[in-house]
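Re: the request from the purification team.
They wanted to know what the chain is likely to look like in 3D before they choose a buffer screen. I agreed to run a prediction and write the result into the notebook, where they can find it.
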Amino acid sequence: MLLSEAVNIWRDPDGEYHIEWQASDPATRVSVEALADGAAFEAHYTERSRARISGLPPSRRHFFRVKDEFGTEVLATERRLGLSGSPNFRDFGGYRTAGGQRVRWGYLFRSGHLARLSDADLALLDTLDLDLIFDFRQQMEQQSEPSRLPDRRPPRVHSLPIQPGNNSGFLQQSGGHVAGPEVMFDFMVTVNRELAREEAAVYRRMFEAILAQDSARYLVHCAAGKDRTGFAAALMLLALGVPEAVVMRDYLLSSRFYDAEKEVARVQEKYGLSATDSAAILPMLQVDEAYLGAALSVIREDYPDVPSYLEAVMGVGERELAELRRRYLED
């Protein structure tokens, strides 16, 4: 049987779509169809659990019907959008809640920074009709790499700087040398714990802005789109009732779309670090279950459950949860 939560779709820089899936029995036959309004396309089944589709117009998003031999059908769109200037830009809708509803596609987005978007990227971003953007980068980051945004109906940008997630203080104090990957790993665990506690007021402001505007389509982003952004996306998915295991799966997708090794040289130059520190720097640029897990453990330490944390810390009680679920869930 096709597992609906394990259908993953992304577009590569050449405009080809990659669709992968999981089934309870690996031998299950699965077919893929693009819902492209008559546009010609070609589907190539490269492996039993993966297909590649080419020929679709690149200027808009496309939905796909993934169907198994028993009639189980999943309608899904690309999770990672094909923005060359922001490779970790993705939709975090489409997930099933514990109650069986689905988070709407096309309303909740997450990404790294938007400073390097191409004109083609801007055209695609324009089609998303975003209402709000939450930028968690430090003011220095926002000023040195300002976002590129569509001219038509530009979204309202909320600057919500978070200090721990950009690591600058830690790296500056290192004196140009990081002791080792274990030290960096431990630091990243600490950073994520701080997101849930010391930086909670920032995320509360995010929820307040979302709830103040009816049915807002929004984007959360930081520099890489994994830690500060990852916790923001996790909070919303948990508020909507998505199981924690699925929330963690969404978080770990950054390891697929954000190439940590390619970013090492940039970080070395930015912070004046030794070229011999490559291995020590990598944990800062990667995602790990222990990172988001550390933030979620703070919630469990301080409150009896996630709804209690959301109400006490984020100002999202029963009334606010009902409103968010009305907006962002469908049967």
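For the purification team: Residues 292 and 302 are 16 Å apart (CA to CA).
Please add any questions underneath this entry.
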